[in-house]
Design brief:
CATH topology of the largest domain: Nuclear Transport Factor 2, Chain: A
Oligomer: single chain
Number of domains: 2
Largest sheet: 6 strands, mixed
CATH class of the largest domain: Alpha Beta
Number of strands: 6
Radius of gyration: 42 Å
Strand order of the largest sheet: 2-1-3-4-5-6
């Protein structure tokens, strides 16, 4: 009986040892042992801190800044009595000769200045009003001129041909003083949403002032 009891105890001990060994080799045991023996690694963000956000890395920050700075930038228009006298001569030629061909349809005659040479089609970078004294001198009952800022432009084209009752905008642009008595000036017209075009005027200075000697149409366009 004593030998059988001893053999049974040994067998139980062996089985218990095998069970412990199997439990130790299971994934759950390995995971538990790993958690205990291996401390967690520090996060990468603590070792390599992120740089602070800048305007360039912020979404749309650069675009917003660029759009804000360019939207309100006024055009740079050179000013002098000589340049104004050339502009007035060009305006007078445009209004009296009806270079755009829409004077009988226009509801308003609007005047503006720009820095464009109008040799190619496109919208000028910006416009500015001419001096009020110049506008008053150019005003006639046939073409009651006003500054462009006082005009309303719809920018739409009516179907079926001509568009009566829209504003006619004349703009005098860049001026090249080739000599004290010769100059070249760019100009353009826009008949509100229906037609536009560009001109080049050649002027000479005579005793009475600047006069247009030649002009040519550079381009015309319809939307």
């Amino acid at each position: 009986m004593q030998d059988r009891h001893t053999f049974g105890s040994s067998t139980i001990a062996v089985l218990a040892a095998g069970a412990i060994a199997m439990a130790a080799g299971s994934p759950l045991a390995a995971q538990s042992r790993g958690k205990v023996l291996t401390p967690p690694r520090p996060a990468d963000s603590t070792a390599r801190p992120r740089p602070p956000a800048t305007a360039a890395s912020t979404p749309n920050a650069a675009n917003t800044t660029a759009g804000t700075s360019s939207a309100g930038a006024p055009p740079v228009i050179p000013q002098s009595p000589v340049l104004d006298s050339i502009r007035e001569a060009v305006f007078r030629n445009l209004l009296e000769r009806d270079r755009a061909g829409f004077a009988t349809l226009a509801s308003a005659f609007c005047l503006a200045l720009s820095a464009d040479d109008f040799k190619k089609s496109g919208v000028p970078a910006g416009r500015a009003d001419p001096p009020e004294a110049m506008v008053r001198r150019l005003y006639t009952p046939r073409a009651p001129a006003r500054r462009a800022s006082g005009c309303t432009f719809s920018g739409t084209q009516a179907a079926g041909g001509s568009v009566p009752g829209h504003a006619l905008l004349y703009t005098v642009g860049a001026i090249d003083l080739q000599s004290p008595s010769r100059a070249e000036a760019g100009a353009g017209y826009t008949y509100d949403g229906f037609s536009s075009g560009g001109y080049t005027f050649n002027l000479e200075r005579v005793d009475s002032g600047w006069v247009v000697k030649q002009w040519r149409m550079e381009w015309t366009a319809k939307p």
